[in-house]
Amino acid sequence: MPSRKFADGEVVMGRWPGSVLYYEVQVTSYDDVAHLYTVKYKDGTELALKESDIRSQSSFKHRKSQSSSSSPSRRSSSRSRSRSRSPGRPAKGRRRSASQSREHKDDKKKTIQETSLALPVLKPSENNTKRYNGEPESTEKNDTSCIVLEQKLKPDLEIKHVLEQYSLRSRKDDKKKEDIYSEKKTFVAVKPIEKVPSKTKELEFGGRIGTFTLILLLPATVLYLLLMCKQDDPSLLNFPPLPALESLWEGRVFVVFLLWFFLQAVFYLLPIGKVVEGLPLSSGRKLQYRINGFYAFIFTAAAIGVLLYFQFELHYLYDHFMQFAVSAAAFSLALSIYLYARSLKAPEEELAPGGNSGYFIYDFFTGHELNPRIGNFDLKYFCELRPGLIGWVVINLAMLLAEMKIHNLSVPSLSMVLVNSFQLLYVVDALWNEEAVLTTMDITHDGFGFMLAFGDLVWVPFVYSLQAFYLVGHPTTITWPVAAAITVLNCIGYYIFRSANSQKNNFRRNPADPKLANLKFIPTATGKGLLVTGWWGFVRHPNYLGDIIMALAWSLPCGFNHILPYFYVIYFICLLVHREARDEHHCKQKYGLAWERYCQRVPYRIFPYIY
């Protein structure tokens, strides 16, 4: 076992990972297994550094005293004094003997050789976890804006002081150093390096065969569920008869769906709401998004109110529910074909990292282009929350009105009220916190193909509303105490879901926020931190846990006569477990050793003490 070089409590100079800057640090401990020193900076930051990234203070002082010209501060003062001299008079210190020149050249070569150890090639588009063993490097894998130490470094005056005191650069590199560390910058920057996405090698969803199966299976599943809800006995063994093909299509219904889609597009284009930037792309560019989903919901509610005022029968949706689902599926298929066709002409840097396999079926399903746009109209971002999510609420309302009409009720049933209220809260919350969707895997990693197009436009509005659709044909009576218990369960799930997401989003937006001072995290090679306190220290995906609890609360008002209304919660558990596995795989690749340390600190994935 190699012996350690620095003792606990020793004050040394530690290089900040990903930079050329050395700061005064104190050694606090040493890991004999990983061979890493835990050091503490003056601002209280604790990091784990390799022995090669630590130098004794004497080595810095020795190089500083070797030559009077090695200090940037002395050179700058010399230049300022030379302005008063005559042009013909040589500057002080310019004359030296031949032996002094040779000594200076030897020192210079030595300095350059030593400096090369502390000047790694910065590749902001890569995750150098192998080099730093999962410890902070302060470069984003997806943030190729090449900003290094953006939030961790001191103000520019302190940076300049450190550079003057501990210079590792030769005299010829002095001008380059002044160009890089200008007074206008508060961080060290290098020239951006554009990353060309490589081919997708690891295929998900069962590869080409799996994705082809899903393209056929997903529409068939929606059709099966809706046919089952229409039956008097929706048990699994009672397979519904297949309807005639002509009964599944109606032109007027398709026109109504198109009007709905383009109405939401008009609301999306309204110049209201703030404009924010998304996460940096592989080229370093940040796309802009207008946050006005909640306004679109308000305008939609007003439009529905006007229709009801003029006695428009909204239960038309219930009467033609199957035709609406087929129309949405046909539209999503046409949209997917258009998206794939246009992606063939998209630049390499605009392709999705997970949908660039070169296989037609796989890329068509997962999405070949990451952020397809028509001008400033972002197709994926628009479909993520608008037509499907808001349409889900409208469908629920239509089912409530249909229940009242079919069963001659003056007020809707308590079960229907609970389902509508719980799911309305979920949708309003998503639209109110619309900006948070910009950091999700759907936006940052997945391309826009059949998977998201069908999921946003068909699966969400027509499967997520299954409980309300079921209650129209199979009314269920529940007591007030049972309704109160279900409400408490939904509130618990919502609290976990919202507080966990808020904690994560606030930490991502501003880790230095004083309100988050009580949160502890593990630093990573990308510059981000992995929370190990709060909800994220309880399980690795507390938002998924809250989601599943809410899904159960949505199904309970339907009673226990049939398993069909529980399809949503069963499917949702499978979906989130699969998504958690995808997250786990990507995080392990992205964060390296830091993710393994996080998993040791937080062993449970979704369900505490179970999974």
TrEMBL record:
It comes from Callaeas wilsoni (North Island kokako). The gene is Lbr. Residues 76-97 have a biased composition (Basic residues). The chain crosses the membrane at residues 205-227, 247-270, 291-310, 322-341, 452-472, 478-497, 518-539, 559-578. The lineage of its organism: Eukaryota, Metazoa, Chordata, Craniata, Vertebrata. This is Delta(14)-sterol reductase LBR. It comes from the Eukaryota. It is found in: Cytoplasm; Endoplasmic reticulum membrane; Nucleus inner membrane. GO terms for molecular function: Delta14-sterol reductase activity; DNA binding. It is an enzyme of class 1 (oxidoreductase). SUPFAM superfamilies: Tudor/PWWP/MBT.
